[in-house]
Amino acid sequence: MQLKNFMKLGWQHISHDMTEELYLKTGIDVTKPRSIKGNVNERCNYKCRYCDFWRLKEYQNEMTISQWQAALLSLKEFLGWYSIEFVGGEPFIKKGFIDLLEFCYSQGISWGVITNGSGFFNRKNVEKVVAARPIKIDISVDSANSEIHDFVRGVPGSLSKITQGIGFLREEQKRLKQKFPIRIKPTVHKHNFRYLPELVEWTKSVGATTIDFNFVKPWTSEVTTELWIRDKSDQKALAEVVETLISMKKDGAPIENSELKLRSFVDHFQGKTVNYGILPCRLSLRDYHIQPNGDVQMCSLYPAMGNVKNSSARDIWYNEETKKVRAQMVACQLLGKPGCENFCLTSQTSFKHQLQRGLVMLQQMAQV
Fold this sequence. Notes:
about 375 residues; alpha/beta
């Protein structure tokens, strides 16, 4: 992430925190979207054991690239400069997705993406992607051990392909003199938790920038039967691994997570409430997540606020339905508890934690 973008994001967080506090204390709503995601598809070419996308019998209808372009321009008219993170499914298997990234660059819209690393990791596509100036590329990797990673991700040879692809990314970064974070995003579960320190070392060895751990959530039957860290002996071992990670972070390892977040992992697998001191839930004051069909949601537990195909971003954010949902979400009592699909994510991320994560990325990129 370039310094100027980091500074823009920092100012955004400060100003957004002020408008959130104003709403919470007075009910005056001058908030604007802060966490913008574009879910371009539900389709995926991987078969991760903790995800159901690849098992769906029917998928949401997907907007065309021109409809996505119109939605992004509407956000630009509303917000001015902003950044969007594209997600899936696997976004790179959507026809025309790289064209959409190039459109973002041409319009001054900053973008990042989270990918399984399979859909574009060849030289030709990497050249186009890096030329479109990402602010970050997040890659899902569960283990430096190919047997574990490939089994959980459901695709033989996937780790090898990711490793090669990161090499292509690094070469193209160097050629175009671009610096942006390549972030490794593991999902912590029973199969891989003992090997997380080795994954940190792998992250450094392949030239990725940072690593950001997140725990598995109970979304599939496999999570319940084979991926949940349930035994007390395993939970004790997890606590020991967490302390190892914290020690590594103190010694300069490129781990983004705070100590508080890492230590919460044991509580999560014990079924305890996990929160980081930021209440009430703030998703409704921050999140603008565009679904494949154009619906905009702040949380999957609540109805859509509108659809980008027939409403502007400004109208969606301030319409009467949004006002009702926003009030309900602020009063929601699920935050940090099982059943809350967003706990530990944006709703409980303070500016301090975001700043610390950003500084880790900047420090690592300065060493490249």
